[in-house]
Amino acid sequence: MRFTSIFKIHFNPDRIYGLDILRAMAIILVVANHGGILFHYTDYQQLFLIDGLDGVSLFFVLSGFLIGGILIRILKEEGGAIKTLVNFWIRRWLRTLPAYFFILIMLLILSVLFTKTFSFHGIYKYSLFLQNFNNQPPVFFQEAWSLSVEEWFYLLIPLSLFLQIRILNISANKAVLMTIFSIIIFSIFYRFYRYSNISTPINCNHWSLLFRMQVMTRLDSLMLGVLGAYSSYYHKLFFSKNKLISFLTGILILFAHAVCDLLHLFGFGLYQCVFSFTVIGIGGLLLLPFLSELKTGSGTVYKIITHISIISYSMYLLNYTVIQCFLLKYVDCHFMARFLPLPPPLIKYLLYWFLTIIGAHILYKYVEKPFIDLRRAVKLVKTF
Questions:
Q1: For the whole model, what pTM was predicted?
Q2: Residues 210-269: pLDDT tens digits?
Q3: What are the boundaries of each domain within the chain?
Q4: Sequence-ordered list of residues with C-beta below 8 angstroms from that of 80, at least 6 positions apart, any chain
Q5: What CA–CA distance (Å, rounded) separates 265 from 250?
C-alpha cells in the first residue's frame, strides 16, 4: 500500500461546492482563532479580524440549513411517522457520535496519564452533552460546547416538529415555521433575561462562558439556517431572487461586525451579549441563496476547499485540546529553530496546522467514514 493512499479521500462529485466553501471557511476561522494563542493574541486578532469572524456561528447556520432541509423534506414526504424520527436520529448520530467518542476517550486517557490534577468529576456529562446545557462549560475539552449545541438541536427540534404534527395535527410547513420563530424569539429573550440579571461588569470571559458557549443561548443561530431551508423549499423563487445582492449584504454584515468587534465599539453590553449572535446568524443566512446554487467548481482550489470541507468535523475535534494542549506541549520549537530559519512561535503555529490537517485526514478516513457508510443500514429500521 502506497503511503499517499493513507491520506487519499474520494468524494462525491455531486457535493454542493458553495456550501463546501462556507464549511471550509468556517473551520479555517475556528482553527485560526484557536491558533492565536500560539502568538501574541491581540496582534493576531488585528491582523486577521479573527475574533469577530465567528466560524462557529457560520457552522451553526450551515448545519441548520442542511439538517433543516432534510427534516422539511422527510416530513413532507413521509409525514410524522415514528420510524421517520428514529431513522433521522440514527443517521445523525452515526455521523457525529463515533468520532466524538473516539476523541473523548483519547482525551480521557491522555488526561489520566499526563495531567496530575485531572478529575473524573462531571465527565459523565460529556456522554449526554450536558456539560454546557444551561451552565458554563468545563475547561476539559471545552471546544465541544458547540457540538453539544448541535446535538441538542438534532434531538429537540425534530421531536418538537413530530409532536406538533402527530398530537396537535398541525401541517408540516406550519410546524416548521412556528418552531423557527419560537426558538429564535426564546433565545433572544433568554439572553436578555440573563444579561438583565447580571449585577457584576461583564468581561470577555463572562460573555463567552455565559452567553456564547451554552445550548440554551445559541439555538437561534441554527434556527436561522432552518429558516433558510424553509424559504428554499417552500418559497424557492423568493429565496433565489437577488441572490448576489443577498450574498454581498451578508458579507458586509459579517465584515462590519468583525471590525466593530475588533475596535470594541460595543464592549460587552446589550448588543454583544444579546443581539450579536443573531446578527452574525443573519449574515450567514444571507450567504446561503448564492452559495447553495454554486453547484461545482474545478481546479486545485476546488479540490483543496472540498477536502477541507470533508475533514472539517475531524479538524474541529482535534485542533485545540488534542493538538495544541497535548501534542504541541511536548514539542521543543526552540530546538527546531536551530535548523529552521523561523522563529519558534511560527514553527509551533505551522506545526499546529500541519498536525491538525494530517490528523483530521486520518480520523476522517478511519473513524468517520466507516460510520458514514454504515448509515445505509438505517433502511432496516422500518417499525418501532
A1: 0.92
A2: 999 999 999 999 999 999 999 999 999 999 999 999 999 999 999 999 888 877 788 889
A3: 3-380
A4: 161, 162, 165, 166, 172
A5: 20
